Amino acid sequence: MTDAIVVEGLVREFKGGIRAVDGIDLHVRAGEVYGFLGPNGAGKSTTVRMLTTLLRPTAGKASVAGFDVATEAGSVRRSIGVALQDAAIDPFMTGRELLRLQATLHAIPRADGHARAEVLLDRVGLTDAADRRVGTYSGGMRRRLDLALALVHEPVVLFLDEPTTGLDPTSRVALWEEVRRLNRESGTTVFLTTQYLEEADQLAGRIGIIDGGKIVAEGTPAELKNNIGDATLMITPTDPSRIADAAAVLQQFGPAADGKPGAAAIRLSEGAEGIAAVVRALDHAAISTAAIDLHQPTLDDVFVVTTGHRLEGDASAAPGSGRGRKGRRE
To answer: I need a surface site. Which of 149, 184, 200, 233 has the fewest CB within 10 A?
Structure first.
């Protein structure tokens, strides 16, 4: 199987003729982690619901793990794992009990199901808490248990819907590593929707951005960043009165760009490798600098350029930021 997910002309309309998803095409290769981003109301959750057979397409077609989502829904469900952001987990059962129950629901023989539960408890770091009621688990522990539940039947494709929303930075990084290990060791295809651009940058080999029900950008994180332009170099002179002089020197190296107050800025196509020549030119002009800042394009820049929005809920979500809030679901 070359492509784990194939989507062609997929459409979903709601009452009133509203097209939440408007003829999108997607090809997710087997074994890759694919990040799916979009502003609130863009159509990403509707797309995931169709791919996981929770919602029937209005038009177009889609296959997951080689099965048509409309005509072979049962086979799709047996081939996928789904960890939803708002999944309901019985707080009165233990982690071990829930995993064994999940194995039973997937018709896994009792002995095999019990063994699988132990393997997954160890994999997600919940062995010591296996016999505690889930109601006593922290948010990070619940998300790791949710991931384990989605993996009981060894799915070909795993859908993760905002897996780290609301987690502290340490729990977020731990879950990132678990997703990496899962993908690396078992080759599971991961379809990741997230509110955090840093999460997509860290985990996804390719990223699709949806806006207004249409795919507006797709590629590797590096490709998407490179497509929106060069790095921005900002020079802050020690003497504020020499900003104009600094700007004149910088014009030799690239076109002017927007910069922060008190700084002159250009687009520098050479990136970091071009800084040395700029510094030499400034020294020759006797312009001393208080700060030299090089801003490489980020996924946030890509998102703004392609959608006109900043991703609601994102803090760039770098570990340690502790920021970011959940936005409205579409």
So the answer is: 184
Q: How far apart, in whole angstroms, are the C-alpha atoms of residue 258 and residue 261?
A: 9
Largest CA distance in the chain: 79
By DSSP bridging, strand 214-219 and strand 157-161 are unpaired
With DSSP H G I counted as helix, E B as strand and the rest as coil, what are the percentages for the chain, rounded to 5?
Answer: 40, 25, 35
In degrees rounded to 5, what are phi and psi of residue 246? Answer: -65, -40
Distances (CA, A) of 22 to 38, 58, 71, 215: 14, 10, 21, 9
Spatial separation of the C-alpha atoms in residues 6 and 105, rounded to whole Å? 28
Give φ, ψ of 98 to 5 degrees.
Answer: -65, -40
Are 130 and 96 in contact by the 8 Å Cβ rule? The answer is: yes
Q: What is the pLDDT of residues 19-61, one digit of tens each?
A: 999 999 999 999 999 999 988 888 999 999 999 999 999 999 9
- Residue 174's SS3 state is helix
Reported as a single tens digit per residue, the pLDDT across 149-199 is 999 999 999 999 888 877 788 888 888 888 898 899 889 999 999 888 889
Q: What does DSSP say about strands 67-68 and 59-64: parallel, antiparallel, or unpaired?
A: antiparallel
| Interatomic CA distance for residues 191 and 36, integer angstroms | 7
pTM of the model: 0.80
Q: What are phi and psi of 95, to 5 degrees?
A: -60, -40
Q: Are 121 and 131 in contact (CB under 8 A)?
A: no
Contact 229, 267 (CB under 8 A): yes
